[in-house]
Design goal:
This protein is an alpha+beta fold and 154 residues long. The protein contains three helices and four strands, in the order αααββββ. Strand 3 (133-140) and strand 4 form a beta hairpin.
Length: 154
Amino acid sequence: MLKQTIRQKGFTIIELLIVIVIIGILATLVLSTYASGPAKARDSKRLTDINSIATQLEIYNSETGGYPTFTGKLDTDTWVQQNLKGLDINALRPPNQTANSMVNSATPTKDQYGYQAFQSDGVTACTAEPCAKFKLYWAKETANNAVQVKTSLQ
C-alpha cells in the first residue's frame, strides 16, 4: 500500500502577517503623501500672492518714489484697486479667506499676510510716505506655520 501524504493548501499565519504589515506600510506612505498635498497647494498660492503684491509695490514705488504705509492703504480694498491697478484683489486674500487679510505685523497667521513699511535704515517703522523699504510676511503651512519674508528690492 502506498502511503499518501495529505498536504494542506493555504497560507501560514506568518505569511499572512507579513502581507498585512507590508500593506500597512504602503497605506501609511500613501496617506501621508496625500495629506500634505492640499497644504502644499495653499502654500503655493500664498507664495504667488506675495510675489504679486511685491511686484505691484515695486511698480508703485517707481511711480511715486516710495512705498505706501499700511494703515488705510494695503488693508483697504478700495485703495488697492485705485493704486495697485495690476494687482488682482484676491491676492490680498490668503487661501480659504474671503476678505482682505493684510495685517501690520511680522507674525501673521496662515490666514493673514503681513506688511510693514520701513525708513531707509530698514529697521525704523515708516509712518509717513514715502517709505523706503517694505517687508511682506506669510506663514508657511507645511513648515509648522513658520513665517516667511519677502523684502523690497530697495
